[in-house]
Amino acid sequence: PHSKTDTKSPLLTLTTAALILPGLFHPAIHAAEEDSVDFQYSHYQEGKRDIYSLEDNNAAISLGNIEKQPNQVNPIEVDSIRGNGRFTLTDRIKFAFNYTQDTWSGATPLGTAPAVQGGNGSVIAGASPFAKNGRSFFLDNKGNTYTAIKTGNREPFLLGTKANQLTHVLSYASPETRKQGDFKLSYDWDVAAVDVGGGISVENDYESRFVNLGGRMDFNQKQTSVNLGLSYTNSDTSATIDPDGLPYIDTQGYEEQFVSQTTGLVSYKPTDGAPAQIESTLDSEGNRTGAMLRANRQDWGAQLGLTQVLNKDAVLELDMGYTRSTGYMANPYKLVYFIENKEQPGLDPNTPLLSISLPGRLEKRPEERNQFNWNLGYNQYIEPFDAALHFDYRFGHDDWGINAHTFEADWVQPLGAGWTATPRIRYYSQTSADFYTPYVRSITTGNDPVTGEKIYAKPLPKNYSSDQRLSGFGALSGGVTIAKQFAKGVSLETGFEYYTHQGNLELGGGGEQAFADYDYWVANAALKINLAALGSGGSGDDGHSGHGHHHPSNSPAGVMFDHTLAKSGDFMVGYRFMRSEQAGAMLLGSKTVSPDTVRFNGCGDQECAVVPESMAMNMHMLELMAAPTDWLTLMLMPQWMDMEMNMAALKAFDTQNQHHNGHSVGHNHQTGGIGDTGLYALFKLFDNPHHHITLSLGGTAPTGDVGIKLRKTSSITANAANIPLHYGMQLGSGTWDFKPSLTYIGELDKFNWGAQATGMVRLESTNESGFAFGDIFQSSVWGGYQWTNWLATTVRGVYATQGAIHGAYPASTEINAVTQLPVVLTHVGPFDSPANYGGQFVDLGLGVNVTIPNGAFAGNSLKFEWMQPVHTDYNGYQLDRDYALNFTWSYGF
Fold this sequence. Notes:
Layout: H1 4-20, E1 36-46, E2 51-54, E3 66-69, E4 77-88, E5 93-114, E6 124-125, H2 129-133, E7 137-139, E8 145-150, E9 157-162, E10 166-188, E11 192-203, E12 206-219, E13 224-240, E14 249-250, E15 255-259, E16 266-270, E17 276-282, E18 288-311, E19 314-327, E20 335-336, E21 338-342, E22 353-357, E23 360-362, E24 368-382, E25 387-398, E26 403-416, E27 419-430, E28 440-447, E29 454-456, E30 473-485, E31 490-502, E32 518-530, E33 571-588, E34 591-593, H3 595-601, E35 610-626, E36 632-637, E37 639-649, E38 667-674, E39 677-687, E40 691-701, E41 709-710, E42 723-724, E43 737-738, E44 741-748, E45 751-762, E46 771-772, E47 776-786, E48 791-802, E49 806-807, E50 839-851, E51 860-874, E52 877-892
Parallel strand pairs: 6-10, 14-23, 21-28
Antiparallel strand pairs: 1-4, 1-32, 2-3, 4-5, 5-10, 7-8, 7-22, 8-9, 10-11, 11-12, 12-13, 13-18, 15-16, 17-18, 18-19, 19-24, 20-23, 21-22, 24-25, 25-26, 26-27, 27-30, 28-29, 30-31, 31-32, 33-34, 33-35, 33-52, 35-36, 35-37, 36-39, 37-38, 39-40, 40-43, 40-44, 41-42, 43-45, 44-45, 45-47, 46-49, ...
């Protein structure tokens, strides 16, 4: 019979090695996942894409050359965090959850067009000046493009030189955030298991809800496993089409345009049977001022898998899956440019025709997609090296015409002393979708004499997309993950991967042209805590697992730096979440002020265009504490920030020579990413059973970004540089900050009390963006009562004061594209004035503390605290405070 000793070493290597790789979906073989808590951060960074355009020499255009143009906008980058936990509720029932949040921004392809059409870098757009400023050119029936010689101020044009270069039209996006949470509840029998789960993913313009059901059956003494999974996803799109881009975007296929015979005004109505509905708004003159695309999509999926232990050193996996998708599957921010020629009877069919570029159309994809995928995985333990080799081949096919091949391999090599290195390589290739096209060419033969509509030589395609992800291409990537396993079930991992996407890497060749080539890199770091290895899953000699665990103080959740670890060698890991919201009226100092008062006085010598309606800030922090001696504890505190501000427009505001992202209506801004990193030393100044005094010395390093830009969208100032995001929504201070703290805690019977004074002193007068936040002082006093051995409550009073911002963002040197006057980057909201930051605040906090004394989760501590503002006295004009929430989880050992 199959024994544990026969397979323990190789199978343990195979299964744990698979789990080492961040984001790996399938483990090498089914293995009971132990209770754990993991945190992971990753950063994705694309390289700048090449863009091309016709050099403009203001003479005969044919003499111009197609040249690579300077790309001044930042490429796509994404910051992501992920937290997950797995917990054993009973011997057979387990619960797991995941939370993922990512924030992205930067330039991404909007569409593709011949470079002969563009003019001197105009292919970079917030809206689409490419379509606005496109030149006439020639196009033959083989797809060759030629420049056009201008013979005078008007036509005719003469045939110039051949220039077949294509180029992307780029669109820049301000930061946007996606949040996803999901869970899984499973029940295990001896030879079978079933699990059910679900989740939701939310972003500004897209919401997806999903459920799944899975099962596993073991045979052949658990050497053979069969897995079955079913899933359903329902997704809604609510995308606002860029208001500045509307004059250059054609919504045919989704929306029909009409001209009133009585008033002559334009009106729009959704197209019957379209996969998405567009709702347009018009002004009194019939000009379209806004458009919202709304659509739904549904996905049904099934996956069947077989896992077979071949011998004590090898495992084989076979999987097959099917997904059926229906509804709207296009991207509401992708365009396809239509190029129109007028047929000229009597000409040779190969003669190039003078071409005109029309506004880009929103792409259209089929409303149904059936996808099939097959996977072969082989995992081999290499005994001489005590290593594991993983190899996977995946093939995907769909009825859009895409065939995809993936080859992936990694080598998991233990290095000793808890270190593991995992190099990996991956190759991917796909054919293009049937409806992929860089652009669409149409030939007209005239106009219908009755309707006046154009008559085409052949029907226009029903579906079309220039999204390069649907083109033929290949991708090659390689990377390495380094992991360190520490004692007491804690491990750290870091990884790096480089990826290149090229049309000529497609299997068999024939992929997309080189203009679409790009590369990116991904770096990640992860902290993993095995709760079972820490002893939380077993029983001690005294009948519970809580014996020996370090118990944190009973101070409120919002109090940090309040205690040291008990003795040398102790370690504590924790997670801290803080959320604060502002909403309600605008205040000047402590008094409510009217919108008109803010409008004329809240932005210095400029008139305010918008005011904030609400603002939310979320802060996620890890607390890693270690005690090298009995009297000293060291703390490392990395943190992640995300913020969102909703704004409302004030009355008419003249933006002709001013710029704040071109907004004239309500809108919102988001941001997210790594905040400043804290490093502290906590000293045990006085310690007896009833009184404790702790001194904390340390501060924060400026790892949070203070140079985040808003996208330029106003066509009035299309040549203006991206402007800085509001001061209060940058991710850090940008300065090295000293943060001392002194804390006293008292305890007697079931009562506890304490007091703390904390400061933050900016050690630099300005940061790299030209400003510095004001210094902070905060004091707290609190009292609490221990109701049971696991439950306590607290009441806290807090006083805080913060100075105004010193310095300011540098003035812009850009020139307005229309007026040719300097662009005044005047911030037109009160949150953009350095004087409108800081103040004095009094808050009242009510808290609940839960410490689990025994059982499977013994030693875990949970704290909650609600903070209610009592008094607010702002510097300048600011939005009233609503509430704050503090939550902490910690485990000491």
